[in-house]
Each structure stands twice: as C-alpha cells, then as structure tokens.
Amino acid sequence: MAIAMDAEALARFLEEAFPQVAEDYVIEEVSEMALRVRLAVAERHLRPGGTVSGPAMFSLADVAVYLAVLAMVGPKALAVTTNCSIDFMRKPAAGQDLVAEARLLKLGRVLAVGDVMILPADGGAAVARATLTYSLPPER
Amino acid sequence: MAIAMDAEALARFLEEAFPQVAEDYVIEEVSEMALRVRLAVAERHLRPGGTVSGPAMFSLADVAVYLAVLAMVGPKALAVTTNCSIDFMRKPAAGQDLVAEARLLKLGRVLAVGDVMILPADGGAAVARATLTYSLPPER
Amino acid sequence: MAIAMDAEALARFLEEAFPQVAEDYVIEEVSEMALRVRLAVAERHLRPGGTVSGPAMFSLADVAVYLAVLAMVGPKALAVTTNCSIDFMRKPAAGQDLVAEARLLKLGRVLAVGDVMILPADGGAAVARATLTYSLPPER
Amino acid sequence: MAIAMDAEALARFLEEAFPQVAEDYVIEEVSEMALRVRLAVAERHLRPGGTVSGPAMFSLADVAVYLAVLAMVGPKALAVTTNCSIDFMRKPAAGQDLVAEARLLKLGRVLAVGDVMILPADGGAAVARATLTYSLPPER
C-alpha cells in the first residue's frame, strides 16, 4: 500500500488544519502504516516539577495515530477519534522531548486502529502507551 | 465515608497545585464518591469549527476523577493516573461549556477507579465517557 | 425509540444463534437502551476458590451490551464487538450469581457504545465494569 | 533481569493452579519480559461458523500476560488482572490455532502492564490486540 502523504505534506496539512498545535509536533519519519513524531516540549506541556502532563501525552498519541492514518489515506479523510485507551507507565524526566512511535494495526473501510509507544527522545523506557480507534468517513 | 475536601477546598488546592489549568474548571458539586465539574470553554480548548478538542475532554475527565479522589482522601494524596479509556461519542456543539459527572467505583488501598460522563452544560446526550485508574501512594 | 425485541425474543435468539452459551444467561429486564442479564454461575465459570473467572465476567459484559443492541435494532443486525475496556474491581464472592446492568450510550449508524456494571446478584458493590463498542453492519 | 520460570515450570504451574484451562494453552517461548503462547483451538472456543469467540481471545490475552509476569517474578506472585483493553480487529479464520505474543512494558512494585498481539498460528494479520494491567500483591 503506497504512502499518500509524506512528512512534509503532513506537516503542511497540520499547519493549515490545526494551526493552534502544529508547532508542537515534528514529524520525524513516515513509512507504510507507521509514523514517528516528536513533541517539542514547551512550558505549556508541563506540570509543576517539569514533567510532561497527561493531556500533552494524550494529544501526542492522538496526533501520531491520526497522522499515520492520513499518511495512508490522504488529506481528504476526516478521521474522528472514537476511542483511546492509554497507560501512563513512568513519569517522564524533566527537560527532554518525547517521541511517539505509531503503527496502524488495521485500516478498514470504516475503522482504523493504531497503537503508539511514547518514549523519551534521548532514550530510555517507554513512559506511556496508547491504542486509538478512528472512525473513517464514508466518502473515502 | 466522610468528605475530606469540599468544593472550595478543592478549588483552592487546584489553584495552588495546578495554576496553569485551575481557571479552566469550576467545581459545581461534591458528594460522597462523586463530583461534578464544569469546563469553562475558552478559545484554547477548541478545534477549528468551534468544537471542544479531544485533549480538552481528556483533561476534563482526568481532573474530574482526580478531584473526586482528593475529595475523599484529602490533599496529601498524590494520586497518579495510570490508565484511561475514553470514548468520544458525539461532537460537542460549539459555544457551550461541558460538564463532567464523575463517580468513584473503587477507592482501595493502592488503586482508585472512577468513571465519568461528559455532557453539554445546556443539556443533551453525553459527548464522551471515560474510566480512569489512579495509583495511590503508599504513604496514605 | 421502540424496543424491537423483548426478553423472550432475545432469549430465543440466543438459543438459536449461540446454543453453547445460551443457558448461562437469564435476561431479567429489557427497557429502552438498557438491559439486565444474570449469569447463572456454574462450575465452568469458576476459578479455584470458587470465584467467577475474568473470562466469564468478560463474556457476561459482552452478552449484556450485545443483547441491549439487539433489543433496539432487532435480530437481523450482526453486531461485532470491536473494543472492550474492562476493569476488575473486586473479587466476586463465591456461591452467588452475577448480574450485568447494561445501558447503551450511543446507537449510531455504524457504531454502538454501551457500558455495563457487573454486580453480585444478592447485592453489594460492583465487581467489575466494562465499556464495549460494536460495529454495526451496513445492511441495517 | 533473570527469568524466574521457564516454559516447563510455567506449564506445570498452570496445570496445578488452573487445571480447567491448562490443556488449552501451549507455552511456546519464554524470554526476558516476553512470552509466546498458543491456544490449541477446540470446539468449546468456537462460535457458529467456526470462528474463535471473543471470550476465548480475551482468555488467551489474559493468560499470555499473566504467564509473562510469572516468568519474571516466580510462582508465589498472586497477580490479579485489574484492567484489560482489547481490540478485535479481524475475524479469525476457521480451523487454525491462535498465537499470543505478549511483552511486559512495566513490571513495577505494585503494577505490571503488558500488551499482546493475537495472530493466526499459520501467519497473517493480527486478529486482536490487548493491553492488561495486573496488581501485584505486597508480599513480593
């Protein structure tokens, strides 16, 4: 299955469709059914103590799988998150970016399922994992 | 089981511990093992089209159950979210606040489990539901 | 929204479609978007110690929401479970049946979402809770 | 971290502790923080049409991560499943075994988290995935 959008095309799409959050994310790699994106951690993502907040990790996981879907089906698809199960396993260390490695496990006619590991950008054990389901619009 | 913190005490705690987000939330009601909190929707919670974003709903669910736990165990407890399963069921209408109704299903020695419904403040069907698990520190 | 199948019709359907498990379940009450079903606990549902096994509780949750969907959309719908998030909160006491109280939170064109509480039939705190998503076939 | 129980020791433990289900499972490989187990599919695991039932897949996922925990912490640990999120992605083909590949993502003092892919034994795309959390007893 061919890639419909590469990292550059996805970054452009993000800027146009989600200007509020586009600068948070750096798309590092796009491959078939998989994508890696980095959260450029800023003050607004932190909790007291300098650790990345749960909502910021949720957002990263959501964006990672969303972009992995778009990479395969193209920018017209209006995928909607219907379910997320996320496990927070370790407190992220302060002062470093987080990387999300997403892979699509299913890309069906009406549903896509992907999982994602969230890792410290400088290496080390996963801080969180998530699985997300997207509903794909019928017009595909 | 007695309530350890009322709405006012919880609001004060939120302002001190999480000053970045405290103004987003209005604690409307605290009762035994249950709590209702409103997200005062602002520009930063929206996606294009004026609908509340997934991460903003995740945050609301997380805060609601977290506060319900604190209401029962008091401000010393450093509860940490370990798991969240969230279902996004309907697109929230633009231009209105969201309300989270949380209840604790379990408040054990090391784990607390709560679920939460997210509803439009002006009435109507639930837009999301979530279940969250918190790890409670041993020093309790 | 009218009920398409009552308790008797659902029980008959269960016997025809799932003869292996039909005798395990007693449908106690069917109402709009909600259903209560009892697991008639037998030896095969138990773990050593006499407590109901996790898989038996998973099955009960799955059947409860599945039947709640069928009650609303009728026997032709071939709903397929796509996701389940289940929390096991307390060990069920030995020697008593379990009851599942399911309600549908969403009954859309392609997806249905329901949650369910699993309670001891003789009363007491919930032993488990679950949320399930079903994919509904397009021929509806 | 050393392996505390190998495949043979785990199989013996399963026979003693869970004689009702032990014959269903063949432990194929044990390594650090990972384990592969096969469900020897029999009539009782099937739905009409010959496809493996959801509860049978839930059980397989649960056993796989449970055994992966025991492999690391030894037979004294009485791990209890507290949460499972499972996605059913494809209908398993009739007439073949299923294999679960589990890996532990966290093995903490009080909680263990593992995920698992369920695949057709003869190859092909994953039919389900799951993440499970276990509470570990304090006496460890």
Automatic annotation (TrEMBL), chains A, B, C, D:
State a single Pfam family of this protein. Answer: 4HBT
- Keywords, alphabetical: Hydrolase
Kindly indicate whether the keyword Nucleotide-binding belongs to this entry. no
List the Gene Ontology MF annotations in alphabetical order. Answer: acyl-CoA hydrolase activity
- Thioesterase domain residues are 49-124
The superkingdom of the source organism is Bacteria
Tell me which InterPro entries the record gives. Answer: Acyl-CoA_thioesterase_PaaI (IPR052723), HotDog_dom_sf (IPR029069), PAAI_dom (IPR003736), Thioestr_dom (IPR006683)
Reply yes or no: does the keyword Cell membrane apply: no
- Listed NCBIfam families: unchar_dom_1
Q: What is this protein called?
A: Thioesterase
